[in-house]
Each structure stands twice: as structure tokens, then as C-alpha cells.
Amino acid sequence: MVENKLPFSKDVFINRPHMFGGDSYQFWKVGMKIFIKSIDRQILDDIINGSFAPKYMVNNEFLDKPWSD
Questions:
Q1: Which value, in Å, is the radius of gyration of the alpha carbons in the chain?
Q2: pTM > 0.90: yes or no
């Protein structure tokens, strides 16, 4: 029998996040943060703080920039 030489067990998610099953929320939350950070740090910042919406100023008032611009 060949011994597993991987640094993680077979049940650890690497390519996709573990689905939340209703229990162990704190464990799932930490795993999701690590998974999202591994993709892109900015994504986690957008999830926590909200994404940046481009704006422009007209008559001393900020308006949302249309998607067409």
C-alpha cells in the first residue's frame, strides 16, 4: 500500500471551498477567508467593506459613473 505523502488529508478542500452544512460555522468562516485570500486579497476586502463604485463630480455633487463610460 502506498502511503499518502501530501501535507494535507484527503478531505481538505483545495480547489473549491467547503460548503457550509449548518454546524461548525467558525471553522467554515476561517476556511472561507483563507480560500478567498488565496484567490485575490482584493476580493475579501470587497466582501468585507463593499466594492468601490466609481463616481464623478457634477455641480459639486458626486454621481455614480454609468457602466457605459
A1: 20
A2: no
